[in-house]
Fold:
Amino acid sequence: MQSDDMPNHAQIALLYHHHHSWLYHWLSRRTGCREHAADIAQDTFVHLLKARETQPLREPRAFLSSIARGLMIDQYRRRQLERAYLESVAHLPAQELPSEETRRLILDSLERIDRLLDQLKPRIRQAFLLAQLDGLTCPQIAKQLGVSRATVERDLAKALHACYRLRYADL
Structure:
């Protein structure tokens, strides 16, 4: 059953026909690369096709540019993660380098973790990173953040619960 609030393929095709060229040129100016612009423009419309519902579009260009901007940010963050990952394995002997499949799995996992951390409140994220990356104890984190040990414990519980939800969201 089709609702007026849910774009169907014909509506998206019409949107694509009227605005794809504009979006591509808009992205080309921002990215400086026609290939990246083409990929992001295409991904923008794929995103629309996957969306379960959207509001009626009064300002289609603003809507499309908003989606595209988010996709550019996601792409930039993924490249940063890839660079950091490549730097971390650059010192490994060739025989210890992960396979391409393992590399993709690691990068996908890092991207999901990055998105999860980005959704946490700053203090919770900081407490989690201090515990997981720096190996600090709850009292050490509490002292560094200027909060009580109980607050740190609650923050870590929230962060771990978010990790648990992330872990089981795809099952």
